[in-house]
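hiii, so i know i said id send this last week but things got crazy w the move. better late than never?? heres the sequnce for the chain we talked about at the cafe, plus the structure i predicted for it. fair warning i was half asleep when i ran it
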Amino acid sequence: MLSRDRQNLGVDDAFAILSVLWVIIINVIASISVHYGAGHMEDPDTPPEALKQAIYLSVVSNSLGVWAFTLPKFTLMALLNRVFGFGLKSWIGLGFVVVASFAGALGTSILWWKQCIPSSRIWDPTVSGKCLPPYVLVDMGYGYSVWSAFGDLVFTLYPQLIIMKLNMPKGKKAGFCAAFGLNGLAFAVSIYKISLFPRFQDLLQHELTYLDGILVLLAILESDILIVAGSLPSSGNAFRFARQACTSGYSKIFAESASVKRAESGPSHSSPSLTKEDHYSSATMTSRAPTDEVELVPHSPRGSN
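okay and structure toks below
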């Protein structure tokens, strides 16, 4: 985003910034909860007041953690629309995936706070009230994680189908496919997270804060992958700047080397001319046109997507 003009920033950039800030906040809260004793509630040396604080912060981090891998999906949808353009079918399909993810995250967040009435019963067992069985929270988290994994798979495969139809150089096409293909890593993280849910029901009965070390960590990992996948396709200017910086550096080295050789060889009767290295560096700087400026032109009309 820093490598582009402000006028070229879009909705996807706003969601990317929000996603990064969200992950930072969750990291801070989860770290503080671990400091108070999250993950080792059965330790007899942990003070009761510290355990209450640890459980409270655990509820906060987990209720916010489900949004960590939901917000980047909004980033990906906005980016795909800005880069490729959507037809009606694509808007309906991807819109349903994203809206359903939003609803699932909202429901899971609410359930974390409403699993006990009053909510203070969650972290303070001395408060009288009623709580839902642990399997309700586990089943809710399991169902939403399955849907989130499905969303990651959609955002992995759909861009590949669109990119294959575009008229662009093969190298740039491979770069786009690789960038959006990173969503496949987020899908793998989701599958691993889903495989752990059968263990959570028994653990929640005596170690609620255990989830801080597993679910929150995996949520942050999945979110980081999605943020990177949603940022790489629009980072052409940054890569071009790095490439030009490297090329300029090599050209400077070649020029200095040529000057040293001329100084060592002494004056020459022939007219000064460019050395072989100078010709190479000059051709390198002038013949390479940035491929990031190639316009994306699909073979088929956008409305068919």
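btw DSSP finds ten helices and two strands in the chain. thought thatd interest u
miss u guys!!
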